[in-house]
Amino acid sequence: MASPLLDDGYTAWREGRMEDAVAALQSGVAAGEAAAIAPLFDAALEAGLTGDAAASVRATLDSALEGPLAPVLDQAAGQRAAARLGAVVLASGLGRAGDWPGAIAARQSDHERGDLRAGLEIALLCELAGFTGAALSLLEPLARSGQGEAIAALLRLGAQRGEVSEVAVPHAPALARAHPLGPALQQAISGLPAAAASAPCPVPDAQALADALFAREPERETLHDAPRIQTAPGLISAVLSDYLTAASVPFLHTATIFDPDTGEQRPDEYRRSLTASLPPSAMDLPALAIRDRMLTLAGAQSHQSEPLAVLVYQPGQEYRPHFDFIAPDGGRASDDLARRGQRAHTVLVKLNEEHTGGATSFPRLDVAWQGRRGDALVFDNLDAAGKGEKASLHAGLPVETGTKILASLWVRER
Ligand SMILES: O=C(O)CCC(=O)C(=O)O
Ligand SMILES: [Fe+2]
Protein backbone atom coordinates (compact mmCIF):
# COMPACT_ATOMS: atom_id res chain seq x y z
CA MET A 1 0.00 0.00 0.00
CA ALA A 2 1.32 3.44 -0.91
CA SER A 3 2.38 5.63 1.98
CA PRO A 4 0.76 9.05 2.57
CA LEU A 5 4.05 10.75 1.73
CA LEU A 6 4.25 8.92 -1.59
CA ASP A 7 0.62 9.91 -2.33
CA ASP A 8 1.35 13.54 -1.43
CA GLY A 9 4.42 13.47 -3.65
CA TYR A 10 2.57 12.10 -6.67
CA THR A 11 -0.37 14.50 -6.18
CA ALA A 12 1.93 17.53 -6.02
CA TRP A 13 3.87 16.26 -9.04
CA ARG A 14 0.67 15.79 -11.08
CA GLU A 15 -0.35 19.33 -10.19
CA GLY A 16 3.03 20.72 -11.21
CA ARG A 17 4.03 21.70 -7.65
CA MET A 18 7.55 20.37 -8.07
CA GLU A 19 9.09 21.72 -4.84
CA ASP A 20 6.27 20.10 -2.83
CA ALA A 21 6.63 16.86 -4.79
CA VAL A 22 10.36 16.66 -4.15
CA ALA A 23 9.91 17.54 -0.47
CA ALA A 24 7.23 14.84 0.09
CA LEU A 25 9.19 12.17 -1.77
CA GLN A 26 12.37 13.09 0.06
CA SER A 27 10.59 12.76 3.41
CA GLY A 28 9.26 9.41 2.19
CA VAL A 29 12.74 8.10 1.43
CA ALA A 30 14.09 9.49 4.71
CA ALA A 31 11.25 7.64 6.50
CA GLY A 32 12.36 4.35 4.94
CA GLU A 33 10.01 4.16 1.95
CA ALA A 34 11.94 2.29 -0.78
CA ALA A 35 9.16 2.94 -3.32
CA ALA A 36 9.88 6.68 -3.10
CA ILE A 37 13.51 6.35 -4.25
CA ALA A 38 12.96 6.19 -8.02
CA PRO A 39 10.24 8.89 -8.13
CA LEU A 40 12.41 11.19 -5.98
CA PHE A 41 15.26 10.93 -8.49
CA ASP A 42 12.87 11.52 -11.43
CA ALA A 43 11.10 14.46 -9.78
CA ALA A 44 14.39 16.11 -8.77
CA LEU A 45 15.61 15.94 -12.37
CA GLU A 46 12.26 17.09 -13.76
CA ALA A 47 12.35 20.07 -11.38
CA GLY A 48 15.85 20.86 -12.68
CA LEU A 49 17.12 21.16 -9.09
CA THR A 50 20.54 22.72 -8.63
CA GLY A 51 22.54 24.05 -5.65
CA ASP A 52 21.64 23.15 -2.07
CA ALA A 53 18.29 21.58 -2.96
CA ALA A 54 19.97 19.18 -5.41
CA ALA A 55 22.76 18.39 -2.94
CA SER A 56 20.22 17.57 -0.25
CA VAL A 57 18.24 15.19 -2.51
CA ARG A 58 21.48 13.61 -3.59
CA ALA A 59 22.52 12.95 0.01
CA THR A 60 19.12 11.35 0.70
CA LEU A 61 19.38 9.13 -2.41
CA ASP A 62 22.96 8.10 -1.67
CA SER A 63 22.23 7.03 1.87
CA ALA A 64 19.09 5.15 0.77
CA LEU A 65 20.90 3.29 -2.02
CA GLU A 66 23.90 2.45 0.13
CA GLY A 67 21.87 1.63 3.23
CA PRO A 68 19.10 -0.74 4.31
CA LEU A 69 16.67 0.37 1.56
CA ALA A 70 18.79 -1.11 -1.24
CA PRO A 71 17.72 -4.76 -0.65
CA VAL A 72 14.08 -3.65 -0.40
CA LEU A 73 14.35 -1.95 -3.78
CA ASP A 74 16.06 -5.01 -5.26
CA GLN A 75 13.31 -7.26 -3.98
CA ALA A 76 10.53 -5.01 -5.33
CA ALA A 77 12.14 -4.88 -8.78
CA GLY A 78 13.05 -8.58 -8.83
CA GLN A 79 16.62 -7.71 -9.81
CA ARG A 80 19.68 -5.83 -8.60
CA ALA A 81 17.95 -2.50 -9.13
CA ALA A 82 19.71 -0.52 -6.39
CA ALA A 83 23.17 -1.08 -7.88
CA ARG A 84 22.00 -0.09 -11.38
CA LEU A 85 20.26 3.03 -10.08
CA GLY A 86 23.18 3.91 -7.79
CA ALA A 87 25.50 4.04 -10.80
CA VAL A 88 23.03 6.18 -12.76
CA VAL A 89 22.73 8.63 -9.83
CA LEU A 90 26.53 8.78 -9.62
CA ALA A 91 26.92 9.60 -13.32
CA SER A 92 23.83 11.83 -13.52
CA GLY A 93 25.35 15.01 -12.12
CA LEU A 94 22.49 15.52 -9.63
CA GLY A 95 23.79 17.66 -6.77
CA ARG A 96 27.43 16.98 -7.67
CA ALA A 97 29.48 16.81 -10.87
CA GLY A 98 28.69 13.64 -12.81
CA ASP A 99 31.23 10.94 -11.93
CA TRP A 100 31.48 8.61 -14.92
CA PRO A 101 34.72 6.87 -13.83
CA GLY A 102 33.16 6.19 -10.41
CA ALA A 103 29.94 4.89 -11.95
CA ILE A 104 31.80 2.58 -14.34
CA ALA A 105 34.05 1.30 -11.55
CA ALA A 106 30.96 0.53 -9.47
CA ARG A 107 29.39 -1.48 -12.33
CA GLN A 108 32.68 -3.28 -12.97
CA SER A 109 32.76 -4.47 -9.38
CA ASP A 110 29.04 -5.41 -9.56
CA HIS A 111 29.96 -7.52 -12.61
CA GLU A 112 32.87 -9.15 -10.77
CA ARG A 113 30.40 -10.07 -8.04
CA GLY A 114 28.27 -11.91 -10.60
CA ASP A 115 25.78 -9.25 -11.77
CA LEU A 116 25.35 -10.11 -15.48
CA ARG A 117 23.32 -6.98 -16.16
CA ALA A 118 26.31 -4.91 -14.99
CA GLY A 119 28.54 -6.90 -17.36
CA LEU A 120 26.22 -6.08 -20.24
CA GLU A 121 26.39 -2.37 -19.37
CA ILE A 122 30.20 -2.42 -19.37
CA ALA A 123 30.25 -4.33 -22.68
CA LEU A 124 27.92 -1.77 -24.30
CA LEU A 125 29.96 1.17 -22.97
CA CYS A 126 33.12 -0.45 -24.40
CA GLU A 127 31.42 -0.83 -27.75
CA LEU A 128 30.21 2.80 -27.74
CA ALA A 129 33.70 4.01 -26.81
CA GLY A 130 35.32 2.04 -29.66
CA PHE A 131 36.84 -0.81 -27.62
CA THR A 132 35.28 -3.42 -29.88
CA GLY A 133 37.63 -6.24 -28.87
CA ALA A 134 36.86 -5.74 -25.19
CA ALA A 135 33.14 -5.50 -25.98
CA LEU A 136 33.24 -8.82 -27.85
CA SER A 137 35.05 -10.64 -25.07
CA LEU A 138 32.47 -9.41 -22.56
CA LEU A 139 29.47 -10.06 -24.82
CA GLU A 140 30.32 -13.63 -25.81
CA PRO A 141 30.12 -15.19 -22.32
CA LEU A 142 26.89 -13.25 -21.68
CA ALA A 143 25.43 -14.52 -24.96
CA ARG A 144 26.48 -18.07 -24.05
CA SER A 145 24.44 -17.74 -20.89
CA GLY A 146 21.47 -16.70 -23.05
CA GLN A 147 21.33 -12.97 -22.30
CA GLY A 148 19.18 -11.47 -25.08
CA GLU A 149 20.73 -8.00 -25.26
CA ALA A 150 24.21 -9.52 -25.57
CA ILE A 151 23.01 -11.80 -28.39
CA ALA A 152 21.36 -8.84 -30.14
CA ALA A 153 24.60 -6.81 -29.88
CA LEU A 154 26.67 -9.69 -31.32
CA LEU A 155 24.25 -10.07 -34.23
CA ARG A 156 24.43 -6.34 -35.02
CA LEU A 157 28.24 -6.41 -34.82
CA GLY A 158 28.19 -9.47 -37.08
CA ALA A 159 25.98 -7.73 -39.63
CA GLN A 160 28.48 -4.85 -39.67
CA ARG A 161 31.58 -7.06 -39.92
CA GLY A 162 30.16 -9.52 -42.44
CA GLU A 163 30.71 -12.51 -40.11
CA VAL A 164 28.78 -13.40 -37.00
CA SER A 165 30.17 -14.72 -33.73
CA GLU A 166 29.51 -18.47 -33.56
CA VAL A 167 28.36 -17.90 -29.99
CA ALA A 168 25.39 -15.81 -31.16
CA VAL A 169 24.37 -17.71 -34.33
CA PRO A 170 22.50 -20.59 -32.60
CA HIS A 171 20.50 -18.09 -30.53
CA ALA A 172 19.28 -16.01 -33.50
CA PRO A 173 16.00 -17.94 -34.10
CA ALA A 174 14.98 -17.66 -30.44
CA LEU A 175 15.88 -13.98 -30.42
CA ALA A 176 13.69 -13.47 -33.49
CA ARG A 177 10.73 -14.63 -31.40
CA ALA A 178 11.60 -12.96 -28.10
CA HIS A 179 13.27 -9.60 -28.85
CA PRO A 180 11.66 -6.55 -30.51
CA LEU A 181 14.57 -6.30 -32.97
CA GLY A 182 15.09 -10.06 -33.26
CA PRO A 183 13.42 -10.50 -36.67
CA ALA A 184 15.32 -7.52 -38.19
CA LEU A 185 18.62 -8.80 -36.77
CA GLN A 186 18.02 -12.33 -38.00
CA GLN A 187 17.40 -10.93 -41.47
CA ALA A 188 20.50 -8.69 -41.26
CA ILE A 189 22.79 -11.68 -40.62
CA SER A 190 21.13 -14.13 -43.01
CA GLY A 191 23.69 -15.77 -45.31
CA LEU A 192 26.69 -14.44 -43.36
CA PRO A 193 29.40 -16.90 -42.27
CA ALA A 194 30.04 -17.70 -38.60
CA ALA A 195 33.25 -16.41 -37.02
CA ALA A 196 35.19 -18.21 -34.29
CA ALA A 197 34.68 -16.81 -30.81
CA SER A 198 37.06 -13.93 -30.24
CA ALA A 199 40.33 -14.18 -28.32
CA PRO A 200 40.15 -12.68 -24.82
CA CYS A 201 40.87 -8.95 -24.85
CA PRO A 202 41.54 -6.82 -21.78
CA VAL A 203 38.80 -4.43 -20.68
CA PRO A 204 39.97 -0.82 -20.20
CA ASP A 205 39.91 0.51 -16.65
CA ALA A 206 37.08 2.80 -15.56
CA GLN A 207 38.97 6.04 -16.12
CA ALA A 208 40.15 5.06 -19.62
CA LEU A 209 36.65 3.94 -20.58
CA ALA A 210 35.05 7.13 -19.26
CA ASP A 211 37.65 9.27 -21.05
CA ALA A 212 37.11 7.46 -24.34
CA LEU A 213 33.31 7.69 -24.07
CA PHE A 214 33.30 11.48 -24.03
CA ALA A 215 36.75 12.40 -25.36
CA ARG A 216 35.84 13.06 -28.93
CA GLU A 217 34.11 16.35 -29.70
CA PRO A 218 31.39 15.21 -32.16
CA GLU A 219 32.11 16.11 -35.77
CA ARG A 220 29.40 18.35 -37.15
CA GLU A 221 28.10 19.45 -40.50
CA THR A 222 26.16 22.69 -40.59
CA LEU A 223 22.89 22.62 -42.50
CA HIS A 224 21.83 26.14 -41.49
CA ASP A 225 23.45 28.99 -39.57
CA ALA A 226 20.76 31.02 -37.76
CA PRO A 227 18.87 29.20 -36.39
CA ARG A 228 21.71 26.71 -36.07
CA ILE A 229 20.90 23.28 -37.53
CA GLN A 230 23.76 20.77 -37.48
CA THR A 231 24.20 17.06 -38.06
CA ALA A 232 26.65 14.79 -36.25
CA PRO A 233 27.06 11.57 -38.26
CA GLY A 234 27.64 8.49 -36.11
CA LEU A 235 27.05 10.17 -32.74
CA ILE A 236 26.19 6.72 -31.35
CA SER A 237 26.87 3.22 -32.66
CA ALA A 238 24.38 0.86 -34.31
CA VAL A 239 24.61 -1.52 -31.31
CA LEU A 240 23.62 1.28 -28.94
CA SER A 241 20.86 2.43 -31.33
CA ASP A 242 19.38 -1.06 -31.10
CA TYR A 243 19.83 -1.18 -27.35
CA LEU A 244 18.00 2.09 -26.77
CA THR A 245 15.18 1.01 -29.08
CA ALA A 246 14.65 -2.22 -27.16
CA ALA A 247 14.94 -0.45 -23.79
CA SER A 248 12.16 1.96 -24.76
CA VAL A 249 9.61 -0.72 -25.68
CA PRO A 250 8.08 -1.12 -22.18
CA PHE A 251 7.47 2.64 -22.05
CA LEU A 252 5.85 3.13 -25.48
CA HIS A 253 2.38 4.65 -25.60
CA THR A 254 0.31 6.72 -28.04
CA ALA A 255 1.78 10.21 -28.36
CA THR A 256 -0.24 13.09 -26.94
CA ILE A 257 -0.16 16.87 -27.23
CA PHE A 258 -0.90 19.45 -24.54
CA ASP A 259 -4.42 20.93 -24.88
CA PRO A 260 -4.30 24.51 -23.55
CA ASP A 261 -8.13 24.60 -23.33
CA THR A 262 -8.40 21.70 -20.90
CA GLY A 263 -4.85 21.74 -19.50
CA GLU A 264 -4.67 17.99 -20.25
CA GLN A 265 -2.65 15.81 -22.61
CA ARG A 266 -4.64 14.15 -25.40
CA PRO A 267 -3.97 12.22 -28.64
CA ASP A 268 -4.23 14.36 -31.75
CA GLU A 269 -3.92 14.06 -35.53
CA TYR A 270 -1.11 16.57 -35.26
CA ARG A 271 1.25 14.15 -33.67
CA ARG A 272 0.75 10.49 -34.55
CA SER A 273 3.38 8.06 -33.31
CA LEU A 274 4.22 5.94 -30.33
CA THR A 275 6.41 7.72 -27.79
CA ALA A 276 8.38 6.53 -24.80
CA SER A 277 9.67 9.01 -22.28
CA LEU A 278 12.38 7.18 -20.33
CA PRO A 279 12.24 8.02 -16.63
CA PRO A 280 15.81 8.71 -15.50
CA SER A 281 15.34 6.15 -12.71
CA ALA A 282 14.70 3.46 -15.35
CA MET A 283 17.91 4.24 -17.22
CA ASP A 284 21.25 2.49 -17.00
CA LEU A 285 24.76 3.66 -17.89
CA PRO A 286 24.50 2.88 -21.65
CA ALA A 287 21.24 4.86 -21.98
CA LEU A 288 22.72 7.68 -19.91
CA ALA A 289 25.86 7.71 -22.08
CA ILE A 290 23.65 8.16 -25.15
CA ARG A 291 21.85 11.02 -23.44
CA ASP A 292 25.12 12.64 -22.39
CA ARG A 293 26.50 12.48 -25.94
CA MET A 294 23.29 14.18 -27.10
CA LEU A 295 23.75 16.86 -24.41
CA THR A 296 27.37 17.42 -25.46
CA LEU A 297 26.17 18.04 -29.00
CA ALA A 298 23.85 20.75 -27.66
CA GLY A 299 26.67 22.16 -25.50
CA ALA A 300 24.54 21.58 -22.40
CA GLN A 301 24.91 20.19 -18.86
CA SER A 302 22.95 17.29 -17.42
CA HIS A 303 20.61 19.43 -15.27
CA GLN A 304 19.31 21.06 -18.49
CA SER A 305 18.05 17.76 -19.86
CA GLU A 306 14.43 16.68 -20.14
CA PRO A 307 13.86 12.90 -20.10
CA LEU A 308 15.19 11.09 -23.16
CA ALA A 309 12.34 10.09 -25.46
CA VAL A 310 12.01 7.50 -28.23
CA LEU A 311 9.49 8.05 -31.06
CA VAL A 312 8.19 5.25 -33.29
CA TYR A 313 6.28 6.12 -36.48
CA GLN A 314 4.38 3.64 -38.67
CA PRO A 315 3.42 4.33 -42.33
CA GLY A 316 1.19 7.40 -42.56
CA GLN A 317 2.20 8.65 -39.12
CA GLU A 318 3.84 12.06 -38.74
CA TYR A 319 4.60 15.00 -36.47
CA ARG A 320 3.13 17.99 -38.27
CA PRO A 321 4.95 21.37 -38.34
CA HIS A 322 5.47 22.66 -34.80
CA PHE A 323 7.81 24.58 -32.52
CA ASP A 324 9.58 22.91 -29.62
CA PHE A 325 9.62 26.08 -27.50
CA ILE A 326 6.86 26.25 -24.91
CA ALA A 327 3.99 28.75 -24.94
CA PRO A 328 3.47 30.41 -21.52
CA ASP A 329 -0.04 29.69 -20.18
CA GLY A 330 -0.10 31.65 -16.92
CA GLY A 331 -0.23 28.27 -15.16
CA ARG A 332 1.80 25.12 -15.05
CA ALA A 333 3.77 25.75 -18.25
CA SER A 334 4.69 29.23 -17.04
CA ASP A 335 5.86 27.88 -13.67
CA ASP A 336 7.99 25.34 -15.48
CA LEU A 337 9.42 28.06 -17.76
CA ALA A 338 10.29 30.19 -14.72
CA ARG A 339 12.17 27.24 -13.20
CA ARG A 340 14.07 25.83 -16.15
CA GLY A 341 13.82 28.37 -18.95
CA GLN A 342 12.84 27.53 -22.52
CA ARG A 343 13.53 24.45 -24.61
CA ALA A 344 16.60 26.06 -26.11
CA HIS A 345 17.81 23.09 -28.18
CA THR A 346 16.49 19.83 -29.62
CA VAL A 347 18.70 16.82 -30.32
CA LEU A 348 17.45 13.90 -32.44
CA VAL A 349 19.22 10.59 -33.13
CA LYS A 350 18.08 8.18 -35.82
CA LEU A 351 17.84 4.71 -34.28
CA ASN A 352 17.03 2.84 -37.50
CA GLU A 353 16.92 3.33 -41.24
CA GLU A 354 14.49 0.66 -42.48
CA HIS A 355 11.86 3.07 -43.86
CA THR A 356 11.08 5.54 -46.64
CA GLY A 357 9.65 9.01 -46.04
CA GLY A 358 9.73 10.43 -42.53
CA ALA A 359 12.48 13.05 -42.99
CA THR A 360 12.74 15.82 -40.39
CA SER A 361 11.91 18.93 -42.35
CA PHE A 362 12.21 22.69 -41.69
CA PRO A 363 9.67 24.12 -44.13
CA ARG A 364 10.68 27.77 -43.59
CA LEU A 365 14.36 27.04 -44.27
CA ASP A 366 14.22 24.50 -47.06
CA VAL A 367 16.23 22.07 -44.90
CA ALA A 368 15.43 18.36 -44.59
CA TRP A 369 17.33 15.59 -42.82
CA GLN A 370 16.98 11.84 -43.17
CA GLY A 371 20.08 10.48 -41.37
CA ARG A 372 21.36 6.93 -40.95
CA ARG A 373 21.25 4.76 -37.84
CA GLY A 374 23.23 6.53 -35.08
CA ASP A 375 23.35 9.93 -36.82
CA ALA A 376 22.26 13.01 -34.86
CA LEU A 377 20.65 16.35 -35.61
CA VAL A 378 20.82 19.34 -33.26
CA PHE A 379 18.96 22.62 -33.69
CA ASP A 380 18.22 25.79 -31.76
CA ASN A 381 14.66 26.80 -30.94
CA LEU A 382 15.47 30.34 -29.74
CA ASP A 383 16.79 33.41 -31.53
CA ALA A 384 19.84 35.43 -30.43
CA ALA A 385 17.65 37.42 -28.01
CA GLY A 386 16.38 34.20 -26.39
CA LYS A 387 12.88 34.47 -27.89
CA GLY A 388 11.10 31.61 -29.70
CA GLU A 389 12.62 31.37 -33.20
CA LYS A 390 9.78 31.13 -35.77
CA ALA A 391 12.16 29.78 -38.41
CA SER A 392 12.75 26.70 -36.25
CA LEU A 393 9.32 25.39 -37.32
CA HIS A 394 9.86 21.72 -38.13
CA ALA A 395 8.02 18.50 -38.86
CA GLY A 396 8.52 14.75 -38.95
CA LEU A 397 7.14 14.08 -42.44
CA PRO A 398 4.76 11.14 -42.94
CA VAL A 399 6.48 7.76 -43.07
CA GLU A 400 5.73 6.00 -46.37
CA THR A 401 6.96 2.45 -45.79
CA GLY A 402 8.58 0.69 -42.85
CA THR A 403 9.01 2.04 -39.33
CA LYS A 404 10.94 5.18 -38.30
CA ILE A 405 12.57 5.11 -34.86
CA LEU A 406 14.11 8.24 -33.41
CA ALA A 407 15.52 9.36 -30.06
CA SER A 408 14.57 12.90 -29.08
CA LEU A 409 15.92 15.15 -26.32
CA TRP A 410 14.67 18.61 -25.40
CA VAL A 411 17.29 20.72 -23.66
CA ARG A 412 16.41 23.64 -21.36
CA GLU A 413 18.13 26.98 -20.96
CA ARG A 414 19.07 26.13 -17.36
O1 LIG B 1 10.10 13.00 -35.98
C1 LIG B 1 10.78 13.97 -36.29
O2 LIG B 1 11.50 13.93 -37.29
C2 LIG B 1 10.73 15.24 -35.49
C3 LIG B 1 10.65 15.01 -34.01
C4 LIG B 1 10.44 16.30 -33.27
O3 LIG B 1 10.17 17.31 -33.84
C5 LIG B 1 10.59 16.37 -31.80
O4 LIG B 1 10.85 15.34 -31.16
O5 LIG B 1 10.46 17.48 -31.26
FE1 LIG C 1 9.97 19.02 -32.50
Strand content: 15-25%
- Looking at this structure, what is the CATH superfamily of the domain at 218-412? q2cbj1_9rhob like domain
**Ligands bound here?**
2-oxoglutaric acid, fe (ii) ion
Strand count, sense and barrel status of the largest sheet are:
8 strands, antiparallel
CATH fold-level name of the domain at 218-412? Jelly Rolls
Low-confidence stretches: none
Structural class: alpha+beta
Q: Specify the number of helices.
A: 16
CATH class assignment of the domain at 218-412 = Mainly Beta
Using only C-alpha atoms, the radius of gyration works out to 21 Å
* CATH-scheme architecture of the domain at 218-412: Sandwich
Inertia-based shape: globular
Report strand order across the widest sheet. Answer: 3-4-15-11-18-9-8-5
N- to C-terminal distance:
37 Å
Organism: Marinicauda pacifica
Protein name: 2OG-Fe(II) oxygenase
InterPro entries: Oxoglu/Fe-dep_dioxygenase_dom (IPR005123), P4HA-like (IPR045054), Pro_4_hyd_alph (IPR006620), Pro_4_hyd_alph_FE2OG_OXY (IPR044862)
Keywords: Dioxygenase, Iron, Metal-binding, Oxidoreductase, Vitamin C
Q: What does this 3D model show about the protein?
A:
The mean pLDDT is 95. 48% of the residues are buried. The chain is an alpha+beta fold and 414 residues long. The chain has helices at 4-14, 18-30, 37-46, 51-66, 69-77, 81-92, 100-112, 116-129, 132-144, 148-161, 172-178, 182-188, 206-215, 238-248, 285-298, 332-340, and strands at 164-165, 194-195, 221-224, 229-232, 253-254, 257-259, 264-266, 274-277, 309-313, 319-322, 343-350, 355-357, 360-362, 367-369, 376-380, 394-396, 399-402, 404-412. The strands form five sheets. An eight-stranded antiparallel sheet has the order 3-4-15-11-18-9-8-5, with helices on one face. Strands 10-16-13-14 form a four-stranded antiparallel sheet, with no helix packed on it. The protein has a two-stranded parallel ribbon with strand order 1-2. Among the domains are: 132-202, no CATH class; 218-412, Jelly Rolls (Sandwich), CATH 2.60.120.620. Helix 10 packs parallel to helix 12 (182-188). It starts with a helix and ends with a strand. Bound molecules: 2-oxoglutaric acid (AKG) and fe (ii) ion. Residues 311, 319, 324, 346, 348, 360, 394, 396, 406, 408 line the site of 2-oxoglutaric acid (AKG).
